[in-house]
Amino acid sequence: MKNVTDSFVSLGHWPSAGSFGFNTDILATNPINLSVVLGVLIFFGKGVLNDLLDNRKQRILSTIRNSEELRRGAIEQLERARARLQKVEMEADEYRMNGYSEIEREKVNLINATSYSLEQLENYKNETLHFEQQRAINQVRQQVFQQALQGALGTLSSCLNIELHFRTISANIGILGAMEEITD
């Protein structure tokens, strides 16, 4: 590296041959060198830089278009979801109201069925009581009849002879048979 700088330094000591020469003053040559380099870069790099910027611009525009399409799709999905939500909420309200109506209807039906069952039980109870009363009355009648019959037989036995006694017994047996058929 020292050899390269030495060669530039030694070139600076050459005698100037008219208008061409090397300026070794670094402060004076830097702005000139920079302007030459910038001019060359602008002249030759302008097309490359424009192509890079155009490609970047196209990518940005493409990304913006894709974002807009995605945004529109998301908005459409959101609107469909909102419409579906509203429909589901309306159906839920309808089911809820129908459910309450159905519950009330079932409650009334249950109350009516229970009331009807209670009425039937009351009727069955009354019928059972009436049947038991009739049965008790019939049992009392039979016992009274048997006691009366035994009393009559005792009286007849003491007052009647054997032949009259057999006829009376036969007649009473016939009456008893007829009464048993009636009670059955």
Automatic annotation (TrEMBL):
The chain crosses the membrane at residues 32-49. Residues 64-98 form a coiled coil. Its main location: membrane. Keywords: ATP synthesis, CF(0), Chloroplast, Coiled coil, Hydrogen ion transport, Ion transport, Membrane, Plastid, Thylakoid, Transmembrane, Transmembrane helix, Transport. Belongs to the ATPase B chain family. In plastids the F-type ATPase is also known as CF(1)CF(0). This is ATP synthase subunit b, chloroplastic. It comes from Eremurus zoae. The gene is atpF.
